[in-house]
């Protein structure tokens, strides 16, 4: 099973990008993993929030393949501890979808069409986090889950 993180817009702060890339490299030691960046929309000043979400949703949809298990990273999703997330990952890896796709939306979230397409929604925190930080935190948590499943000493309970 391949895991993919899709994010809307590039990271402006290279420090966040470097940390995210470091964890992505570590994750690849355990599972195939890719980060796909959907370019930011241009000329959004004339668009309503709803129109911007809709256009971003269309770009997200183009990145999805039939059979993908789609998980939105959304503040309204289910919260899990690191141990619970590791157990959840184990179940997903055993269930065998070809791709487990995690998506970070744009600044206004996801359009209803993407919410309907999603299999699940996960929250990293009930607090609002910047999108560039979400990439970094998610990559670290996925790496942590892989080390938990491998019985490595990275995570301490």
Question: If you compute it from the alpha carbons, what radius of gyration comes out, rounded to the nearest whole angstrom?
Answer: 15 Å
Report low-confidence residues grouped into runs of 5 or more.
Answer: none
Distance between the termini: 28 Å
Structural class per helix/strand content?
alpha/beta
Q: Mind summarizing the main beta sheet?
A: 5 strands, parallel
> CATH class, please?
Alpha Beta
Model description:
By secondary structure, the protein is α/β, with parallel strands linked by helices. It has a single domain, classed as Alpha/beta knot (3-Layer(aba) Sandwich). Helices cover 43% and strands 22% of the residues. The chain has helices spanning 14-27, 49-63, 82-95, 112-117, 131-149; strands at 2-8, 33-38, 69-79, 99-104, 120-123. Helix 3 (82-95) links the parallel strand 3 (69-79) and strand 4. Helix 1 (14-27) runs parallel beside helix 5 and helix 3 (82-95) crosses helix 5 (131-149). The radius of gyration is 15 Å and the shape is globular.
């Amino acid at each position: 099973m391949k895991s993919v993180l899709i994010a809307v817009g590039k990271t402006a702060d290279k420090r966040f990008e470097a940390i995210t890339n470091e964890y992505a490299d570590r994750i690849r030691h355990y599972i195939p993993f890719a980060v796909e960046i959907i370019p930011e929309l241009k000329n959004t000043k004339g668009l309503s929030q709803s129109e911007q979400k809709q256009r971003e949703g269309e770009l997200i949809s183009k990145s999805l393949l039939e059979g993908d298990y789609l998980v939105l990273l959304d503040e309204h999703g289910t919260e899990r501890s690191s141990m619970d997330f590791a157990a959840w990952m184990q179940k997903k890896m055993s269930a065998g979808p070809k791709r487990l796709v995690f998506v970070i939306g744009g600044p206004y979230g996801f359009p209803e069409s993407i919410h309907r397409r999603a299999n699940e929604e996960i929250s990293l925190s009930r607090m609002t986090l910047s999108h560039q930080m979400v990439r970094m935190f998610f990559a670290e948590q996925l790496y942590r889950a892989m080390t938990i499943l491998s019985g490595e000493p990275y995570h301490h309970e």
